[in-house]
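Q: I have 422 residues here and want to know how they pack in 3D. Can you give me a structure?
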Amino acid sequence: MNQKDETQIVPPSVQYCIDNLQSPNPRQRSQAAQDLGELRDLCTVEVLITVLGEDINTYVRSAAAEALGHIGAPEAIFPLMDALHDSSSFVRRAAAIALGQMQAKEAQMALLQALEDPNFYVRRAAINAIGKLGISDLGNVLLPLLDTPDPRIQRTVITALRRLRNKDAVPQFIRILDEYLTVPSHKNLPVVKTLVIALGDLRAQEAVPTLIRVVRGYVGVRSLAVMALGQIGSPEAGPILIEALKDKSTNLRLSALKSLGQLKYEAALPAVLPFLSAPDPRVRRVAAMTCGYLGDHKAVAVLMEMVKEDPSPLVRPVALEALSLVGDARLLPQLIELAGDTNAYLRAALADTLLALHDGRTEVVTTLQQLTKDPVEHVATAAKHALAEVENQEPRQSKKVTEESGAVKRESSWLQRLFGRS
C-alpha cells in the first residue's frame, strides 16, 4: 500500500474520558460524555454516537447528545435525529437542542415532527432548534403557535421567528404587544421584552407607534423599546427619545442617547450636549459618541476639551473617536500632539482617528510610524493596522460612506470592541 497506515494519537485527557464511558457507574459515564463535549475532539464522535444509541441510562444518553451538539460533527446528525424518538424525554430534548446548535438543516422534518411531542420541554426545544436552522420558510409553520396560552412557548416562538427573519410575524407581534399594553403587568414582562427585541431586530417600521407607547407606559421594558426604536431608524421616534433623556432612569437615558446617535437625529443635539458634562463617566462616554454620530461641529470644542481634560481615562479616548466621526480634518494638528499622551487607551484610539481623518498630510504617517513603536502592545498593533491602511489608500479627506441606515460605514475600532459597541 502506498498510503501510510497512521494511528491517530488520542490526547490523554480525551482517552481518560473515553475509558470512563465504560464505567459501571452511570454518573461517571455521564460526566465523561459531558467532558468530551467540552474537549470537542472529533475522534470521540463515533464512541459518543454509540453511547447515544446503546447506553441503558437516560442521563448518559442525554449527555452524549449534548456532547455531540457541542462537537458539531456532521456524522452525528442522523443519530441525533433518531434520538428524537428515544423513550426518554430528556434524551429527545437534548437531541433537539443539539440539532439546533449544529444548525442541521437535514433535520428539519424530524424537528417539525417533534413539535407534536407529548412532552412540553421537547416541543419547546424543537421550536428553538427550528429557529436556528436558518430556513425562512419554516417560520410559517411556527406562526400559528404564537397564540399559545403558555407564555414560555410564546417567547420561544417569538425568538425563533426573529432568528428566521420572518417578516410575516411582525403584524402578529404588534397585535400581541398591543394586547399586553392594555393592562401592563409585571408577570408579562418576559414576553413583552422578547417581542420588543424581535421588533427591533426585524427593523419593523410599522411597530414604531406601539414601541413609543411602550416607552411611555411599560416600566421594566422602556430601555429595550428605546433601543428597538434606534435599530428601526425611523425619525418618527426622535421626539420620544429626546423626551426619554429627561427621565430619572440612567439606563433609559443611556439607551436614548445611543438610539439618537443611531437615528442621526440632528435636532437632538441641544438636548445631548449637557450630558457631556454629566457626573457619570458612562453617560459622558455615550453622549460623546452620540455627538459624533450626529456629526454636528457645534460639539467639536467640547469634545476636544474632553479629549484633553476629562478626569476619566476611558472617556478621553471615546471623545477622541467621536471627533473622528464628526470628520473635521482641520483638527489633525491638535490630535497629532496627543501621540505622547500618557493614556495608552487614548494613544490606541488616536491611531484609528488619524486613519479616519487622514487627508494626505505626511505628519499623519510620521505619527503613526511613531506609534507603531509604542511600548504598549495594543497601541502598537492599532497603529500598525492604521498605517497599513493609510499607505494603501487615497486620502480620505474625512469622507463618510453611508449605508442604507444612514450610519457611517466603518470597521469596528479597537475602542468600540473594548466597550462592546461594534
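Q: Anything worth noting?
A: Residues 272-422 form a domain with the Leucine-rich Repeat Variant fold (CATH 1.25.10.10). The CA atoms of residues 337 and 367 lie 9 Å apart.
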